[in-house]
Amino acid sequence: MTGLDGGDRPAGNLLKGMGMKRTGKILGCLGLAAALAVALNAPVAWAQDGRGDVVYVPTPQIVVDEMLRMAKIGANDYLIDLGSGDGRIVITAAKKYGAHGFGVDLDTYLLKMANENAKKEGVTDRVHFVEQNLFETDLSKATVISSYLLPEMNQKLRPKLFTLKPGTRVVAHDYAMGEWDPDQEKTLIVPEKVVGDPGKSYTYLWIIPANAAGRWESQIPVAGKPVTYQFNFEQNFQLVHGTVRAGDRDVKLPQIRLVGEAIAFKLDLPVGGKPMPHQFNGKISGGAIDGSVTFNDGSGQRTVPWKAKQIQRGELKLGSAGTSGAAGAE
Ligand SMILES: C[S@@+](CC[C@H](N)C(=O)[O-])C[C@H]1O[C@@H](n2cnc3c(N)ncnc32)[C@H](O)[C@@H]1O
Asked: Which CATH architecture has domain 8-207?
């Protein structure tokens, strides 16, 4: 079991060493644990039964609120908190936003507390907490995932997160996802926080992208004639680059950031012999892109449908960790 700053001697063990038991009072021991940790230059953590991969430290409530805001959580969402502690993230999502969901933890004391808290807050019809290893949890119902875990745990979860529906939001406290660039990040001033970077919390949002990797083809009417456009997309996490061929040469794409199923980019393409600015907007679903393209073909600015068919699948790459096991989220 490691501490949240990556050190491997959690202060929880220090407390145990001092003969402190893991009781309800442990939660009230933050000051002492913090003081001990600071004095001994050790990470702050709670005494636990040692079954988990990281010790319990609660996310401060203002950070919970910010994570849920970043996820734009709502009544139609299903949230799964990986390592749910006292249940505060899932319970807040249910109470403030009407969301459904569950939390998993391996600590039976915390699970009992989380289920009791859900009862106190009147949200047991929408949320529950179960004893389960977060790495073995079925995440398929999730539209939002939350975590406050160590960086290596987040990274281990990455391939599984990429099997989730495009548009699923992942929010994390303090620790990022390695090479997977967040779609949004914030720094919060949290004076009472003594773990990690004391006085500060970092919050991160990622949106599971669709799989755009591969070759696509469209017929687009330009100046009254159908023109073949070929798109060659390479994808690393949510970032896409590649080329588009319209007319007689390949044009390099700027880096595109997918937002769930949405793809949008601007590009000058040599259609009819001269560079013509195009704005593409579409939604990727399965082997099709459906959207619109706006350009000026001499008869004024026009917006026409953009329908692309995938003619060859590519691999969605997940950095040095390899490719997405599910051949990319679809
Ligand atoms: C830092 S706490 C975060 C608690 C809560 N999510 C929050 O933000 O307030 C991490 C939690 O993960 C749990 N945990 C650690 N390893 C786990 C595992 N492999 N499976 C399930 N829970 C785990 C710990 O027991 C602890 O409650």
From this structure: 3-Layer(aba) Sandwich (3.40)
